[in-house]
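Quick illustration, no need to memorize.
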Amino acid sequence: MKPAFTLIEQLAAIALASLFMLAALAVLAGIARDRAARPDRQTHQTISRAADLIAQDLSESRRAVFGNGHVRLSGFGSLDHRSLSPTHRPARVEYTIVRAGETSQLVRWETDLDILSNRNSWTQTVCVDVAGIEIRSLSKPPKPTTRPANDLFGPSDGSQTPEIVELTITPTSSETTVRRVICLK
């Protein structure tokens, strides 16, 4: 008779192979879970960077108007449009949600107030898949002061920027809303 494996040896080999397959399946399921969570993390990081930019513009603003999905700031929050580094020149900065089809994006529109030309405005997409932006004052309005004659920011630029605000950015594709309390003074 030829040597062969016994029934018990074959069952042990099948059981061992099954354990290896279960371990491999567990590893693959973990990788799939990680890949599924990655877009939410990237969305959260992008929106956090957008919140940082808005906080920087708020800290440089002198006057502000907050509306539903729209923010208009006037102050010294001008950025160099090539390097995006602060120039601290007078500017009007607006953030708004622009919808195109099924996508929406948060757009920053800057108008330099000290340049008298038709090239003093530029726009930048801050982040995509944003459903809403809201800034709410958490402090009492600042006491009105008399404006100096050389003030670039008139009443049409809104009221004085409050000392403490809450910034909320809501994405469209995930449950991760970014909220920040920002102290400006």
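The two ends are 94 Å apart (CA to CA).
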